[in-house]
Structure formats: C-alpha cells, structure tokens
Amino acid sequence: MLADSADVITSDRFKALDLRVEAKPDATPVTDADIAVEDMIRDMLSRARPRDAVHGEERPDTGFGPRRWVIDPIDGTKNYLRGVPVWATLIALMDGNEVVVGVVSAPALNRRWWAHKGGGAFAGRTLLTGAPCRVSAVAALEDASLSYSSVGGWVECGLGQQFANLLRDCWRTRAFGDFWSYMLLAEGAVDMAAEPELELHDMAAASLIVAEAGGAFTSLTGRPGPFGPGAVATNGLLQEELLGRLSQNR
Fold first, then answer.
1. Is the CB of residue 92 less than 8 Å from the CB of residue 101?
2. Do the Cβ atoms of 214 and 235 come closer than 8 Å?
3. In what order do the strands lie in the sheet with 88-95?
4. What is the rounded CA–CA span in Å between residue 102 and residue 163?
C-alpha cells in the first residue's frame, strides 16, 4: 500500500510543468514530489504503526524503539527532474540493525522489487506476478559486468585510480546508477555494483533485496549491510576481489 500510494504521487508529478525544485543545504535537489511522498508515507505509518520509528531523507527522524522504517521518497531525483525514467521509491523496515523488509518501486520502468528476511527476493508489478530474483554465477572479474553511478565520487574520496583500474579490467561497465544498479545485480543482469558515498536511506531496501537474491552487500570496509561508508555489492563470488580493488591500500 505504501509503494502503491507513492507511485501515484511520483507518476502524477513526473514531467509536470509546474514541478517545484529547491536546493538542499548539501546542494542536492529536492522536488515537491519528494516531500509529498515522504509526508504521505509518514502519515500512513503514524496511523498504522504509531510506535515505530521513521528515518527518511527529507524530514527529521521520529520515534524510538527497535522497529524503524527507512524511506527514500525518490531515489534518482536528478533523473526525475530531468525527465529520465530511472527513479524509484525505496522503503525498508529494520528491526534493530537488521533490515527485514525491502521494497523498491520504479513506476516509470513499470517495475518493482521486494524481499523479506529469509523469504527470497522478487521482481514484478504485484505479489501475484512476481518472479524470483537470483544473482549471476560469474566468478572472474574479467568476465564481469560492473554498474556504478559516477566517477567523480571515487576521485573525491581518493579512490579514483583504483576505480579507473577496475573499469579497465572488467568485461563491461555501464553507469546505470542509483537503485537500478543493485536491482540489476539482484536479477543477475550485472555482476557488481559500487558507490563511494551513500546514506542509510539509499541502501537499506537494496541491501536486503541483493542479499535475498543470493548476493553480498557491504560497506567499502567490508561491513555487511547498509551502514557505509559507501556500498560494494556483488553476486557474492566477486565480493572479496572487488573490496580488495577498492581498498585505500591498493
């Protein structure tokens, strides 16, 4: 229900001539659709799950307790405001430090992905039409496809040369970017995905979907889960090599 309601708002405002865009303190853009989706989800949760905490990208954290909802109302806002259809609403539920439910809904792609802890990962438009997701079996870097968001972030964090070498040595590289890199990984369409600077709301839902599809999702330092710094995700077979390639000590 949360994802369905979010899709209605984001789809209605996508390419709207009166879409309002502002710059946040970190200079990243936020649209009126971002705010409307997060406010809607928070309102629905306050009525259905009033005891749960909520962490979102656009509003201050609320609530206390072990159960926490993590929301990114529009992941890929720059795509959204430019009319590129690669954007999604990310919703996760955490129990303590463990993600137990994750949903990624991309209505402009007519696609949704979801997972719950121990129950596998799926993709489709509805629960009735969902198909299981499974990562690839590619085991060699030279045979692997890597998806990423941009090169600039790797340069800024001091890993520009390591990332350039990685791009050179992979079989194929494409900047599918944002949530889509990790969903393609979960489906087995790419074998590796990595970004140097992400927040919990960027990673929570994706981390569970990748893990439940049989993959691995860690920080740049190898810590499992969506806690950063950054994200390194693979089909599992390539995790240690990718972590080694993106090490400051290399």
1. yes
2. yes
3. 53-56, 67-75, 88-95, 98-106, 111-116, 121-124, 131-132
4. 29
pLDDT tens-digit profile of 154-189? Answer: 999 999 999 999 999 999 999 998 999 999 999 999
What is the band of 126 on the pLDDT scale with cuts at 50, 70, 90?
Answer: confident
Tokens read off for 42 = 């928070």
The percent of residues in the chain predicted with pLDDT above 70, rounded, is 98
Angle CA 41–44–45, to nearest 5: 85
Query: Counting beta carbons within 10 angstroms of the beta carbon of residue 98, is it exposed (0 to 12), middle (13 to 18) or buried (19 or more)?
Result: exposed
Going along the chain from its start, the domains and CATH numbers come out as 2-132 (3.30.540.10), 141-245 (3.40.190.80)
- 195-204 per-residue burial string, b: 16 or more CB within 10 A, e: under 16: bbebebbbbb
- Give backbone dihedrals phi and psi of 241, rounded to 5 degrees, phi first: -70, -40
CA distance 245 to 229: 16
